[in-house]
Design a protein that fits this description.
alpha+beta; four-stranded antiparallel sheet; globular
Amino acid sequence: MLSSGCLEQHLTRRSGIKLAFSAVIAQFARASETDLTSRIPPRLPNALTGSQFVEFVAGMDRKERERAILDQLVQGNLPQFLTKLVPVELKSRTATAKIFVMPEYLAIGSDQDFLRVPMNLHTAVSIADRWGFVLPTRKMVDAIYDQCAFRFIPQPLPAGPQMTSTAYYRMHNTLIGEQARARNFPAGVLVAGHKKDVVLSHRLTRIPGRIAIYGWHRAPGMPIQPLSTVHGAGYADYSHGIRLVGAQAFVGGRMRPVREILENSALAMALSDEGAIPVSSIFASA
C-alpha cells in the first residue's frame, strides 16, 4: 500500500488530481477534528451568562474565583462557537503540521454574552486535561496570529494590583467586545491580538512552579510580551488568555498526539521553536 506522501506523488503524476487528493486529506482532518471536542459537555440552558458570572464572583477572593471558573467550565458553560475548532498550519525545515485551535480565548457564558476569562496555570491545565486539549507553544501563538481572520488592536490597562481583579477582567472584556463590534468581527472566526497567551515552554521544567506567558501582538513578529516565566503558577491577570489546542495534530499524512510530537526531539520543531517540551511532566506538576 502506498503511503499518503507516495500516493499524492502517484496521483499527481498519473492523473493530475493533486487537488482532489488534498480535498480527501482535508475531509479526513475535519472528521478527526470533530473528535477533538467530544469531551466538552454541552452547555446547559440555564447556565450563567458572562454578565451573570461576573456578578457571581464579584465578592470572591482569587482562590474562590479560580474554583468558580473551573466549576463553570467543567459543567460546559462556554460559548458554543468555541467548540468549532479552526485549523492552523505550522512548518519546519522537515515537516508541515496542522493543529486545530479554539477560534477565541476560553470564555464563560453564552454565544451572545460571555466573559473571556483569565485563569492561572493550575486551572488552565485542569480544564485542558479534562477536555483532552493542550496549551499552545510560542510558535503556535505566532502562527495563530499570522493566520487569523481578524486582528485586534491590543488595549493594555494601567498596571497595578488591580490587574488581577474581577473588575479589570470585566473592563478589559468590555473593551474587546466594543472593538469587535466596531470593526464587525463575527463570533466564531479565528481572532488574535487581544490577550497574552498562557503557553507551554521548556522553561517550565527549569523553573518549576511558574506560569509561562507570551504574545499580545501589535503586528506579525511584534509581541508586547516576550516569553516570560516571571510569575508563579497561581498568578493570573486581565491580560492573560487561554487558547486551547486540540490534542491531535495532522502531521505526515495522519493525526498524531500533540504531546507525542512535542516530546519527540526529532518532531518537536514542527510545533515548537524551543525544541522538545515535556508536556506530560508540565501538566502533571501544574
